[in-house]
């Protein structure tokens, strides 16, 4: 049973515009959420995280929003750049932090 | 380098053979994870090691899969009698043990079973 879901397999955005990637989860015990970026033939690279005590975390062009009541998080990239083209995975873990559950990924293409 | 190192980067093997994949975690990271990514799918948890505690093997898909870790260093994932459905990228990740510590991944081993 998929506890973390990314319902959009792909997204295309014009360079300079905002990219919004979405993620939903089902387990209310999750309290730590992460986004990873993956280029072909490389491992996922940690991008940004947020704990459940916050609803927003910002790092440069990347902002993660968490809506606990809706069990939804999103990653905003602004402005989008061609180098941002990659597969983005969201992930979640619970109180124990033992297991990280990953979504199936969204492939972002930023068009120059 | 300071990152997670995996070897080999690619492995082609015949169905029925055993394979061994290796992971060197980041120094100081006590937690180590193995994940698998099949073509077109997400990351599938396989096994988790934390210090000297018993590993969490709940994600291993069959008894053909096993993993070991020596202390807080190198880990090996062994697949016996490989099958074609074992073809995937096997990813290793490590982290500090404290809560809210992100995983850091290696570049994976691409396993192809012919």
SSE blueprint:
The complex is a heterodimer of chains A (112) and B (114).
Chain A: E1 4-5, E2 10-14, E3 19-25, E4 32-38, E5 45-51, E6 56-59, E7 62-67, E8 72-77, E9 86-93, E10 100-102, E11 106-111
Parallel strand pairs in A: 2-11
Antiparallel strand pairs in A: 1-3, 3-8, 4-5, 4-9, 6-7, 7-8, 9-10, 9-11
Chain B: E1 5-7, E2 10-13, E3 19-24, E4 31-37, E5 43-50, E6 65-69, E7 75-79, E8 88-95, E9 104-105, E10 109-113
Parallel strand pairs in B: 2-10
Antiparallel strand pairs in B: 1-3, 3-7, 4-5, 4-8, 6-7, 8-9, 8-10
Structure explained in plain terms:
The complex is a heterodimer of chains A (112) and B (114). Helices cover 0% and strands 54% of the residues of chain A. Chain A is mostly beta strands. In chain A, the strands form two sheets. In chain A, strands 2, 4, 5, 9, 10 and 11 form a six-stranded mixed sheet that branches. Chain A has a five-stranded antiparallel sheet with strand order 1-3-8-7-6, with no helix packed on it. The model of chain A has no long low-confidence stretch (mean pLDDT 94). Chain B has no helices and ten strands. The radius of gyration of chain B is 13 Å and the shape is globular. The mean pLDDT of chain B is 93. The N and C termini of chain B lie far apart (33 Å). Chain B is mainly beta and 114 residues long. The chains are: A mainly beta (112), B mainly beta (114). At the A-B interface, strand 4, strand 5 and strand 10 of A face strand 5 and strand 9 of B.
